[in-house]
Amino acid sequence: MRFSKKNLLSLAGAILIYFLVYWLQAAGVISAFQEINLMMVGINIILAVSLNLIVGFTGQLALGHAGFMAVGAYVSAILTTNLGQPFPVAILAGACTAAVAGIIIGLPTLRLRGDYLAIATLGFGEIIRGAANNINYIGGAAGMIGIPQLTNWTWLYLMMVLTILVIVNFLNSTHGRACVAIRENEIAAETMGINTTYYKVLAFAMGAFFAGIAGALYAHYFYLIQPATFTFFRSFDILVMVVFGGLGSITGSIIAAAAITIINAALQDLAVLRMVIYAVLLIVIMVFRPQGLMGTREFTLDRWVPKRGEASGSAGN
Amino acid sequence: MALLETRDLTISFGGLMAVANVDLCLQQGELVGLIGPNGAGKTTIFNLLTGVYRPTRGEIIFNGRSLVGLKPYQITQRGIARTFQNIRLFGNLSVLDNIRIAYHWHSRYGILNAIFRLPSFHQGEAAILARSQELLRIFKLEPYQYEKAKNLPYGEQRRLEIARALAARPKLLLLDEPAAGMNPQETKELMTLINWIRQEFDLTILLIEHDMSLVMGICERIYVLDYGQVIAEGPPEDIRNNERVIEAYLGREVNGVAPQGGKS
Amino acid sequence: MAVFLQQIINGLSLGSIYALIALGYTMVYGIIQLINFAHGDILMVGAYIAFFGVVYLKLNIWLAFIISMIGSAILGVLIERVAYKPLRNAGRLAPLITAIGVSLFLENGGLMVLGTEIRSYPAGLITSAQLPLAIFGIKLTATTLQLLILAITIAMMIILQYIVHYTWAGKAMRAVSYDPDAARLMGINVDNTISVTFALGSAFAAVAGILLGLYYNTIHPLMGIMPGLKAFVAAVIGGIGLIPGAMVGGFALGIFETMVSGYWSSKLRDPIVFLLLILILLVKPSGLLGKNNTEKV
Questions:
Q1: Residues of the signal sequence (chain A) (predicted)?
Q2: ipTM of the assembly?
Q3: At residue A307, does pLDDT exceed 60?
Q4: Which structural domain, as residue segments, surrounds residue C60?
Q5: Cα separation of B45 and B176, whole Å?
Q6: A110 touches chain B (CB under 8 A)
Q7: Any chain A CB within 8 A of the CB of B117?
Q8: pTM here?
Q9: What are the chain A neighbours of B73 within 8 Å (beta carbons)?
Q10: Which domains occur in chain B, in start order?
Q11: Residue-range domains of chain A with CATH
């Protein structure tokens, strides 16, 4: 790794945030309710950033992200709860299984375009949920209980930073540009020597991998998972964050995931009214800002740090 | 040995023979024109050569190997690049990124190198950047390198598309109506550019064009297509005087200069 | 064999309802290429309008049908004007998100106003008797309700075919769905045509909602979610944007679902339906009746 001034600043910022929250938590300033939402912010950031890779950057409309999350959640929970494996092993296994699911789904369905792909991926998500509903080993419709609570701030933060770092580094390379080229014009991309099938499947696999991590973190924080947690509404939720933040903007996804999670938490006491307000907000914001908060732009440190004369990438370094 | 040879190249859509029994032969370094009335099947031949369509019948031999059944990206990697009649740039990306994407398959570093930012990533990216900017300089597009491609003036978009095709480092370049929508001055400059890149990049070029001043001016040999079939082949002066061509295509405008702003 | 035929009879009524909902999806998709996720919830609103009409205004069921269709049509047009029209040139995803927003609004607004209780239409609203049937000497049963559902659906489809093919509004709809810009140049009011499409689709959804309420004997604020999604699947199976596709897809899905429940397990029904969807799309990427449109290069 090469450290430019900008990278060092980002690194310092990331470490500072970690210790700040760690200290606040140790000092007992963060309430139990706030902690839950903090965890949800982190998990949703992982989900939104990974879905943005598929939808926003590669241009493949996928509505099955909750399915990949479910795979990660269940596989990791089986490993820790039933097989007594350590948490890191469980996270990795959950993520890898989700990635394999991504490839299995990606390979055949990527012949489909646009809305057909959307409904096929939605269907796959529902198939995964339906399977979980029917397998007694993982509790059927009642779900799995008694999963050890292993997710803490350190794990969450580590995984979140890892997700963002890997995806941003991927996007700012020739491989990431290949994905963006597919979004912009698939035929031209293919005539420029890009193996479009390979990159579409790769985007699916990577997106699913990180959704699997999010699922593992979720399962080991709430120590209870049910098929009902992973309905297509959950996939919609993630898509809303991605579109709201801006398709093709990683920082947009991060901001939107955090904002939407916090808005949801703030309206908690309003019961059903909360969802009504949420729905109205969603409509109003999209009508007035259809490109999302950030569009395809990134919030970068470039504004404060002089550039090294490098070209502008499609995502912030 | 010919660089590109098609034998009995045929494709039918439903019952319609869009291209029938076409035999083309391009020698290394040639600049060949492909002309014909609208709907004669010119672009379809390009689509066959680049793997967008699969021929119903016939053979395409490039550099001694058959291209039939290969995917477009594999054909590009074998050394054929093209431009499109209706410009297909990556509109929302910068001019520079348009070029960098075409260098993609020449880049040597893998995904893990990118994710972990290993030295080979930095070397690879530096090489891509240097080559891309060199190409932009040649095409006088350097001032626009950070602009979105879709915001470029039309003529510049056409030039960028040619530059992008060259970035894939082809042996054979297919240009689909490169002068469409250009004024006479721009067309003249384009002719100079095409001649120059042919020398500079050691290219063989096959081009579709409606602007007769361009075709007659720079092509060494011309194929004339009508209803999917080759009706004439030869140097410009022969084509100009060929009865069948005049009948099928040029009509009364045999004076060498076609009407301005032919259809795009 | 008897079980098989019986499942077909049961599947036909469920399939009718799916087909009615799928028609609305497909009409809207055909004209503005939007997956109107709120369509399933319009169905719920339609079911409730009829419920209140029958229970509180003591309306006759047929009058309730009409009022519910009108009410839902107005709602559909309203939704289009507020949530989709401003986004017509904003790409594909922004209106998809507002559609999800409208869907959430109707579901949760419904829960807030109507509460979570499950209601049902008053008994005796439609007298449903068992009809003994015999096909090739095999004894089967159908209810008059099942026949009624089928009859209403077929009547609605005939009306729709008439509207689409023989009225000015229908011709305008076809023109707009073929090429909105050319239609505009031909003097067609595209905005109004889109509104008419939403009104028609929503009126169909209202009928489907009431029939669904009668069929399952329950209505609930979230009743539209699953049938809505299934009907969308049906529209895709048939070839989205195609009116005959929605009919074929709806009936096919209804029959397939009852077969799976009848022969196998109702718990496996939903995942298998989605599996079928994916298999069909893999073989025919644009649905059973769809043409494979590849992009012109």
A1: none
A2: 0.87
A3: no
A4: 2-283
A5: 11
A6: no
A7: yes
A8: 0.88
A9: 190-196
A10: 1-79+170-264 (3.40.50.300), 88-168 (no CATH)
A11: 32-230 (1.10.3470.10)
